[in-house]
Specification:
This protein is of the alpha+beta class. Helices cover 25% and strands 33% of the residues. It is built from 2 helices and 5 strands, in the order αβββαββ. Strands 1-2-3-5-4 form a 5-stranded mixed beta barrel. The mean pLDDT is 85.
Length: 105
């Protein structure tokens, strides 16, 4: 049996809440910042419309699928210099899970 602790409670009573907190933190999923870059994907199809801020592309495999992508700042400058022509076949490189295109060729 342990004697009284610092505040008049037994030493075991002081350790239990701390131990409980440590166990809860260890068991809970804590999001971590990873240094992995976002995954990149491609979408291939025909240009429906291309503006200074975004491009709409119709899939070459499914004529009913049309996707719109916004440009990164760097790509926006390049697109303004030479915009894609309507009906042209393009491949849009974008970040997985977003509509942000970083390359159009």
């Amino acid at each position: 049996m342990s004697g009284p602790g610092l505040w008049g409670r037994p030493a075991r009573a002081r350790v239990t809440p701390l131990l409980l907190l440590v166990l809860l933190l260890a068991a809970s999923p804590i999001p971590t910042l990873s240094k992995d870059r976002p995954k990149k994907e491609k979408f291939r199809g025909f240009v429906v419309a291309a503006g200074p801020k975004a491009i709409s592309v119709k899939s070459e495999k499914n004529i009913y699928q049309v996707r719109m992508f916004h440009y990164t700042a760097d790509l926006e400058r390049r697109i303004r210099a030479k915009p894609p022509v309507r009906g042209e076949m393009v491949t849009v490189h974008y970040y997985q899970g977003t509509d942000l295109a970083f390359k159009v060729n």
